[in-house]
Amino acid sequence: MTQQIQEPELTGVRNFRDVGGLPTSDGRRVTTGRLFRSGHLAHATETDAEFLTSLGLHTIFDFRNGADHALEGPDVELPGVRNVNIPLSDPADGREFWRLVRDGDLDQLRSILGDGKAAARMANSYRGIIRTRTAEHSRVVHALAEDSVPALLHCAAGKDRAGLSVAVTLLALGVEREAIVTDYLESNAPHRRYRVHRSSASAEARSPEVMELLAPLFDARAEYLTAAFDTIDEVWGGVDHYLAEGLGLQHETLDRLRDRLLV
């Protein structure tokens, strides 16, 4: 396996990692130092920014929407790096739901999250993004094939929207699904996890039961990514048709993408 970029101790950026080293079905691997993923960069420290600058990034893809930007702030700007915002969710979708996640009391959280509702919501969200955001994913993969690497892909937590965009890119590269899931699950490491926003700092607002109810929203679970893969199979009949018909990727584009990102 090729050597990955040594993961730094970033202070203000969660869930950063190099996707390099993942194996493809034809025996190649994703090149290190070319494709990265993380949570948002709004709180990056000066030292964090220096490290990110040292990666020689061409483009940062930010999949957050306006509500995320209002909550967390814009990304820090890095010299010579292009910032591209491609929202993969509508701020209006689930606005009341996420308000209750931040502000709701225990009874409200039980109502919207209990009895498997939270996990089902996440799986359905993954399915919906795959079905309805083909234009956005096509734009990302075409950009990576043309001129946008090295690239960093991120959303808020670096788990869901970025996780799906990374997964789509890796499928286009021919990476095995099992390897994609393994990388995705790395987002569960304690130092990577998104810090849950709750409006109250009281002990009750973060009681064990509250945190258990919230957990499915902030976990990386294999079943979520499997739901996305199943949607590709159900709607398009498999990855090849998804890439060709869903994303409009020509063979020449896939060849360029693989030349840029595989070794």
Automatic annotation (TrEMBL):
<dbReference type="Pfam" id="PF13350">
    <property type="entry name" value="Y_phosphatase3"/>
</dbReference>
<protein>
    <submittedName>
        <fullName>Protein tyrosine phosphatase</fullName>
    </submittedName>
</protein>
<dbReference type="InterPro" id="IPR029021">
    <property type="entry name" value="Prot-tyrosine_phosphatase-like"/>
</dbReference>
<dbReference type="InterPro" id="IPR026893">
    <property type="entry name" value="Tyr/Ser_Pase_IphP-type"/>
</dbReference>
<comment type="similarity">
    <text>Belongs to the protein-tyrosine phosphatase family.</text>
</comment>
